[in-house]
Amino acid sequence: MAIAQSSPKEEQHQQCGGDGGGWVFQAITMLAATAVTAQAAYRARRAPWDLAFVLFAYADLGLLFLCLSMYERLPPPLEEVQEGDSGDGAAVRRRRSWLKMAAWALSTALSVAFAWRVAAVMPAPALKAAVWGMTSTVAVAGLYLLFVYRPVAIPSYSEMDTCKRKQSSPKLDQMI
Fold it and tell me: Which residues are listed as membrane-spanning (predicted)?
């Protein structure tokens, strides 16, 4: 009889609270969002633009949760990126990039939709400009942080794990 043994990385992941009940939290969150959306859609049933906004926000949020969930399930990034790698590492990197782009696009679309609604009720043009300015700043900052900014080199991604925080290097402590 064979006994299944897990790797030290899997054991640490389980000790740190991984795979414990994340799907339960996601399911409860989506049920709550569905209930709120149904109530808002019922109230907006006679105003087509309001109903479109409610349904768009719900669909966008659902897709954003899906992208983030898929991104979290990807394996951790490799320490070194090799040129011309056409194996699984390249596929994971491509999937990671596509999911980051999708998450940024969905979150930006949601921000723009809310800014559009908020700016519509602002009494002064300066307040409308402030709403659009803040939304633009968030969108551009997200684009920069996700795709342009490269953090200081870390000796190992495993040192970033919060469960190993006490064992991490002094250089990592300075960064955090």
Answer: 23-42, 49-71, 101-119, 131-149
What totals of helices (H) and strands (E) does the chain contain, helices first? 6, 0
**For every residue of 98-152, which 3-state class applies, written as one string?**
HHHHHHHHHHHHHHHHHHHHHHHHCCCHHHHHHHHHHHHHHHHHHHHHHHHCCCC
Dihedral angle over CA of 24, 28, 31, 32, nearest 10: -170
The answer to whether 13 and 163 have CB atoms below 8 angstroms apart is no
Is residue 152 a contact partner of residue 72, using CB atoms and an 8 Å limit? no
Q: Do 66 and 23 form a contact (C-beta atoms < 8 A)?
A: no
Q: How far apart are CA 50 and CA 150, in angstroms?
A: 40
Q: The pTM is what?
A: 0.70
CA dist 156 and 152 (Å) reads: 12
